[in-house]
Amino acid sequence: IRFLRRRGHRRIATFTTYENLQIDTLRQNGYLYAMGMTEFDPELTCYVHARRETGYYVQVVEEFLRNNRGKFTAMFVPYGGYALPIFLACIRLGIRVPEDLELLFFDDIALLYQACKIPFHYVKMPLEQMTQDALQYLLDKSKNPQTPVLKRLYSVEILQKGIE
Predict the structure, then answer these.
(1) Using CA atoms, how far apart are residues 90 and 163, in angstroms rounded to an integer?
(2) Residues with Cβ within 8 Å of residue 14, at least 6 apart in sequence
(3) What is the SS3 assignment for 37?
(4) What is the pTM of this model?
């Protein structure tokens, strides 16, 4: 969110699930904190049900963008799996990315640019290091059940595809 604010955006939309999935909840709490909010603003929040087919997400996103167009200039998307429906909805509605709407996705979705040619930013996590640390933790835990829970902060990169 700070990245988008530094780029001049003040009203930043987001997505969340009705089901409050753990990973979405963690990322959405970060959104709320960075936005200085304690609850989601309906004009800035696209609510979706988890584990649905792509067509459902395209329909919900399209309706959200149509009804709230102009109320925000950027979107933070906490899960890269929503990227394709968002791209399709933008194409259908004639929304130019990034001129009309700047997109920031969590997760490394860089390969989608080759297929869609829609510009976006994405948060790339150090997955190799995270995997190594998790495996080492599991090995340590299997040898000693008293091993404390692994808590570690990782640095991420915000990268872009197709943005000059």
Answers:
(1) 16
(2) 28, 31, 40, 44, 45, 46, 75, 76, 77, 78
(3) coil
(4) 0.86
Q: Are 163 and 121 in contact (CB under 8 A)?
A: yes
Cα 10 versus chain centre, distance: 17
Q: Measured between alpha carbons, how far is 129 from 134 in angstroms, rounded to an integer?
A: 9
Q: pLDDT of 74-88, one tens digit each? A: 999 998 989 999 999
User: Cα–Cα distance between 80 and 112 in angstroms, integer?
Assistant: 10
Residues 17/47, Cβ–Cβ less than 8 Å: yes
Q: Indicate the DSSP class of residue 49.
A: -
Measured CA to CA, the distance from residue 107 to residue 79 in angstroms comes to 6
